[in-house]
Amino acid sequence: MAHYHDLEHIHPPLPELGEEVTLYLETEAKEGLLLYEKDGEIHKKPMERAKGGLRVRVSVHASPFRYCFLLPEGFLGSHGLEKTLPRYDRFFHLLAGSLPPWWALGTVYYQIFPDRFRQGRPELSPKDGEWLLMGRPIRKKAWNEPPGPEGSWEFYGGDLFGILEALPYLEALGVETLYLTPIFQSPSSHRYDTEDYLRVDPHLGGEEALEALFQALEKRGMRLVLDGVFNHVGATHPWFQRALKNLASPERSMFTFYPDGSYAAFWGVKSMPKLDYASPLTQERFVHGKKAPIRYWMRLAHGFRLDVAHSIGEGGTNRKNARWLRALARAAKEERPEAIVFGELSYDATPTLRAHTLDGAMHYAGFAHPVMEWLSGRDVHGRPVHLDAQETWQVLWDHYQALPVQLRHSMYTLLSSHDIPRALWRLKGDVERFKLAYALLFAFPGSPAIYYGDEVGLSQPNPYAKWQGDPYCRAPFPWNESAWNLEVLTLIRRLVKLKRTHPALRLGGLLPLEAGKEVLAFKRRYRGQEVWAFFAPEGTRLTLPPGIDLVAEKEVAGEVETSFLLFQPV
């Protein structure tokens, strides 16, 4: 007997705290109970029969609201049927109140590293040796030069006016939301060492360029997400300089100093001293104050991605992490109610997201890592690993089911980023596997993210034996179209269009699909429509009913040989 419960079965899907919702379960069972946790007790409520299943109305008294179903054959929670009452972490988790805006569910992201995407005004570019970074002069590089080992010191001169010029290209690609790595004034090319949060870096075009970009995006119905580096500041920031030089300065409380004179820093990197959110001054300047950057820039952005969100906290640690993530997200939404705030949660995002903190997370643990391990045979650090299709599916399924139901489609789902090796490079240039990986990205639930250049086959200059992402994954975008892989570009344009227009791919739930041991397969379902997705790097033969190959836009039936297929039965 099949049972199915996902976002489409919750009405309204984004409830307020205390609001009544209808929960529906697709099932052949004729009777059942809703079990939910309240005040430490398990409460029971009978379900009534409805077309194709059972339903029940209940007040969402807490966030998260934890529940499961008791059916004649057992307990149904987020990990399927169990004979005994599941652990709470295997209940379904529903959130209420501040939730992702509807536009963000399934939105197509495009990530840009501003210095490396496009140069709009050459006169803005830093000059060779114009300043010292950690005691050494910066380098100005030609656009066609490959990135070298000194990534932070290397500037190519990309700017926000260049992104503005590229909007017709991005619009033709089908991108809905741009995510930019940091744009505020900083001495390095990556700009994660902020020295002024209220000033757009003049080498990127300043606030004038940001305003022009924001307005142009709004006219196109596109959105902008900025990078919020609120775990640490740059060591050149005046606040930290005052804290360092004057033991009596108010800013001293914003950082964590140790008895030996050292201080807490991001990964121990002294150029990025860590903020202490136990300090009322940190709270005022980053959360509550009018000029807190997460508030101040909401007039020119639709959201923030929080850098190293898993590390933000008090006393040089991540203590009270959930509290401060929640406060940062609330601050953004107080300025722009339709804002999205998601986090770089590099590991298991589930506990943080279940604590009703952010609107989603970068889906490393639940998508990027297992998929690339399966397809490349190496983990993100280059260590050999063997995952078969079924083992990969189990990781994807486990993370998906564990997520709060409303966040399953707002997860920033990715293959490449500025922090990890590019997918094409990890696959040793195997374009066919790369195409399969991107087809899987767009077929899977979530908000798919294209890392700039992936769509034209941009890779990395370092040899495979030298396993490293940053800085080599940050090469300039090749605007000479003769360098583009048009086959990849055509595929990704098609996948973007499918994600944007096909309800099952945009908002549909996830169901397993049997298709053989070496095939990763699943169904997406929304309001009776289904898409079947099949992925087999070595190729497979499928026997299918009549339907449509959505990528090739042609009718298929019977035996089909393929390495990947998005199929809509008719």
TrEMBL record:
The keyword Glycosyltransferase appears for this protein: no
Top-rank taxon: Bacteria
GO molecular function, one term: hydrolase activity
Domain Glycosyl hydrolase family 13 catalytic positions: 111-499
The keyword Iron-sulfur appears for this protein: no
Cited SUPFAM superfamilies: (Trans)glycosidases
Keyword annotations of the record: Glycosidase, Hydrolase
Protein name (Swiss-Prot/TrEMBL): Glycoside hydrolase family 13 protein
Provenance organism: Thermus brevis
Record lineage: Bacteria, Thermotogati, Deinococcota, Deinococci, Thermales
